[in-house]
Structures are given as structure tokens and as C-alpha cells.
């Protein structure tokens, strides 16, 4: 039976974008093996309970608790915001699991026919990397990387991933971008050496590309889940890399509206604020300033805490409603402005709904996501993860007042709608299978 391996590191924000792909292929009769942690099985239950589909759990270091990243990797918590996070995170989180990821892929390939298997993987899942670098092992018919964050591939005209620097295509801007690339490569040398050491231990005979380039270069095809307007103009892009939009999210499970939901339905303007599901412990970073600064205004503010309990010490103004969790699909139809710390999934969900944004994030990939929102014209980037209430208020008022932000968000929404993302992925899977059978 033809098999698609849907591989993701055990973080909800990485697995969730892959779920519509897996469900679509399962519904079309492909056998789908979801490769992630046992803890995330509930998210993939609709797929793994489809006949011919299953879960293959990751083990050991590859099965870290993606809901407790800062507790599991203290070095991440201790790393200051900014580009150093894209140096520390690979060394601590993403490179150590490679041996057990690779072992899991090989286990799956041994149970079936490798020539009838395609691996579709979250770009942060590196368990397929050893093979193109010469490591021994069974080889699938093809590998498809799925870009679940912004495109990190270096470009001669752009600053490197991690700095959150706006594109500047002037000669001086290009020179400055080159200087930043040199700086980051120098800082990254110990991490790159660690990567090569891990891969060599699995039998790789060639050094890996620069780590952040390897995301899109060590796979047969790379599909970036973005429309063109959400990425920078580039001087070059390899032919195997495509920007294909993003599939509609999986159907929302039944969700009981909160008792105050009628307030949302009856309000003309709703400002929705969240700090996502990862860096959401300190609600004073963004939710607090948003609630405080908009108190007494003529908008209804709805705040969610990424599934965490609502803090008991939170001061809730009269024009605000708070809840632990609220599905985007439920709130976005009524949202005028989305205030976010820049999680890529949330930003994409907002743009798919045509919602303009105010973005304030400075951890993980969030400075890069926030700058792309600014570049696209669909929102305001506050360029900090700790904004003042006055800056949040001014930005929200500007987005509400100036129609250009919603206009650009609607234009990008149209780009998503014009993309047949799932059909493109299925076509690529079929092409790989056909080539492997000849």
C-alpha cells in the first residue's frame, strides 16, 4: 500500500499545519503514518483512526514535551530575545533528536515498501537529513519539507534569519545584510560543528549545508506554507522550493461558546489578543498592556491564554472578556484587529480570514514573522516583545482608522483562496511515487 509518513516534532504548532495534509491524503486512500510523540496523538486522532492509517510514536529525545519547551530546555529560557535564540534553539532542541528521528523513519520504511513511501515532514523535523548526506539506510521515494515558519534560506539581498531586519535592497542595505550574515555564521560555527558531528555519527559522509539553509535544501521538494505576499522578494530561489499558500485548518471540534459570547455578536468592533501557546507565561508582556490601554474605549477586547488558566490576579476591564482558549475559527469572523505576539500559525490564520494585525514579538521566530507582517502591509509591527500600553493603543487605533491595513489583509486572503495547496502536495507525492516505480 502506498504510504505517506507525516512527520513532525512534538510541538502542536508544528503538527497542526500538517494535519489538513494528512487528512486530505487519508481521505484520498493513501495510508498515512503520523510520526510524532504519543502525547500529540489526540490532535491527529481523526487521521490515525482512518482505516490504513496509524501513529508511529517518537521516542527518547525526539519525544520531548512540546507544551513545556522552556521547562525542558532551560537554556532557551535563559537566552535573551533577539538573534541569539536562533543559535541556541538548534543546539538545544532541534539537533539532539536527529538520531532517534532517523531511527523512527527507518523503522517505518522497514515495515513497508520504501519505493511506495513518501515522507512529508515539518521543516524542523530533521530525521531525513542523514540520507542525502550519504548515510546508509533505506530511502523513501521522496521527501517533501513543509515550511511551518518563515522561509529561513539565506539570500544575497537579505539579512539572515533571526535578526528580524526589514529588507533593504539599496547597495548599503545589501552590504549591511551581508555583514549580518557573516556575523551570524561566525556565532553559529559551534552549532554547525555539533550538527555535522551528530550526522557523521549516523554515517553521513558529507557536511551539512548551513543549518537554516538545510531546512529547505535537504529535501527533494520544499513547500513553504505561505503566499508570495508574506515573503520577501528574493534575488534567487531554487526550483525545488515553492510558496503554495496554506490549507484550510482541520474542521473545528465542537466548542461551547462562553456565557458572554452574545457580547461578541452584538459588538461592532472586536479586538482579539493572544500570546499564543508557547511564550505565554508572562501575560504582562502583551495581554496586560492591551487590556489596560483599551479599557474604556468603544471596542470589546477578547483575550485568550493559549489553553493556560486565566491568571487569578488579572485585572479585567469592563469592556474586556477573557477565556483560557478560543478557536480562531470562532472569533475571527467578528474580529476587527488581531493583537498577537507573532506566532506564525496565528498570523496565517488571521490573514486567511482577512484580519489586519498589531504584532509584538521578540522570541523564537517571532521577530521574523512580525517583520513580514509589516512588509506585507497587513499590520503594524511594534518591533518589541514588551510594548507599552500607549504603543499598543496607538497601533490599534491606527489599524482601525486606516483602511489600507484591512485592504492588504483582504488581498492576502485572496491569495490563500487562489492556492490549491492540498492538490499541489498530492500531485508532488504522486510524481515521486511514479518516478520511484520506473
Automatic annotation (TrEMBL):
GO terms for biological process: antibiotic biosynthetic process. It comes from Amycolatopsis regifaucium. Pfam families: EryCIII-like_C (PF06722). This is Erythromycin biosynthesis protein CIII-like C-terminal domain-containing protein. It comes from the Bacteria. InterPro entries: EryCIII-like_C (IPR010610), Glycosyltransferase_28 (IPR050426), UDP_glucos_trans (IPR002213). SUPFAM superfamilies: UDP-Glycosyltransferase/glycogen phosphorylase (SSF53756). Residues 290-427 form the Erythromycin biosynthesis protein CIII-like C-terminal domain. GO terms for molecular function: hexosyltransferase activity; UDP-glycosyltransferase activity.
Amino acid at each position: 500500500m502506498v504510504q505517506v509518513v507525516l512527520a513532525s516534532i512534538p510541538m502542536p504548532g508544528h503538527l497542526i499545519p500538517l494535519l489538513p495534509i494528512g487528512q486530505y491524503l487519508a481521505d484520498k486512500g493513501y495510508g498515512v503514518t503520523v510520526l510524532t510523540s504519543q502525547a500529540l496523538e489526540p490532535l491527529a486522532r481523526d487521521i490515525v483512526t482512518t482505516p490504513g492509517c496509524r501513529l508511529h510514536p517518537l521516542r527518547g529525545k525526539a519525544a520531548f514535551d512540546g507544551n513545556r519547551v522552556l521547562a525542558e530546555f532551560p537554556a532557551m529560557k535563559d537566552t535573551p530575545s533577539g538573534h541569539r535564540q536562533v543559535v541556541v534553539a538548534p543546539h538545544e532542541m532541534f539537533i539532539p533528536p536527529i538520531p532517534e528521528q532517523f531511527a523512527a523513519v527507518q523503522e517505518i520504511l522497514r515495515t513497508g515498501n520504501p519505493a511506495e513511501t513518501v515522507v512529508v515532514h515539518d521543516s524542523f523535523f530533521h530525521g531525513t537529513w542523514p540520507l542525502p548526506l550519504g548515510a546508509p539506510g533505506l530511502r523513501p521515494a521522496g521527501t517533501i519539507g513543509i515550511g511551518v515558519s518563515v522561509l529561513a534560506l539565506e539570500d544575497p539581498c537579505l539579512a539572515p534569519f533571526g535578526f528580524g531586519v526589514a529588507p533593504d535592497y539599496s547597495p548599503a542595505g545589501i552590504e549591511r545584510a551581508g555583514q549580518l550574515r557573516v556575523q551570524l555564521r561566525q556565532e553559529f560555527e559551534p552549532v554547525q560543528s555539533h550538527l555535522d558531528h551528530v550526522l557523521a555519527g549516523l554515517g553521513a559522509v558529507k557536511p551539512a549545508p548551513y543549518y537554516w539553509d538545510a531546512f529547505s535544501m535537504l529535501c527533494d521538494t520544499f513547500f513553504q506554507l505561505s503566499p508570495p505576499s508574506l515573503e520577501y522578494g528574493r534575488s534567487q530561489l531554487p526550483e525545488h522550493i515553492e510558496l503554495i499558500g496554506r490549507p484550510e485548518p482541520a474542521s473545528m471540534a465542537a466548542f461551547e461558546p462562553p456565557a458572554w459570547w452574545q457580547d461578541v455578536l452584538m459588538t461592532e468592533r472586536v479586538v482579539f489578543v493572544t500570546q499564543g501557546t508557547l511564550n505565554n507565561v508572562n501575560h504582562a508582556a502583551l495581554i496586560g498592556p492591551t487590556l489596560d490601554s483599551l479599557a474604556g474605549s468603544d471596542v470589546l477586547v477578547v483575550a485568550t491564554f493559549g489553553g493556560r488558566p486565566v491568571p487569578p490576579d488579572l485585572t479585567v476591564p469592563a469592556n474586556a472578556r477573557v477565556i483560557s482558549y478560543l478557536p480562531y475559527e470562532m472569533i475571527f469572523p467578528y474580529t476587527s484587529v488581531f493583537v498577537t505576539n507573532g506566532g506564525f500559525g496565528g498570523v496565517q490564520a488571521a490573514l486567511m480570514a482577512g484580519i489586519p494585525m498589531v504584532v509584538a514579538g521578540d522570541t523564537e521566530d517571532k521577530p521574523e514573522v512580525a517583520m513580514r507582517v509589516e512588509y506585507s502591509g497587513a499590520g503594524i509591527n511594534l518591533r518589541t516583545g514588551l510594548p507599552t500600553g500607549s504603543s499598543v493603543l496607538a497601533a490599534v487605533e491606527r489599524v482601525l482608522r486606516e483602511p489600507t491595513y484591512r485592504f492588504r489583509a483582504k488581498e492576502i486572503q485572496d491569495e490563500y483562496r487562489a492556492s490549491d495547496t492540498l492538490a499541489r502536495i498530492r500531485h508532488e507525492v504522486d510524481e515521486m511515487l511514479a518516478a520511484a516505480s520506473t
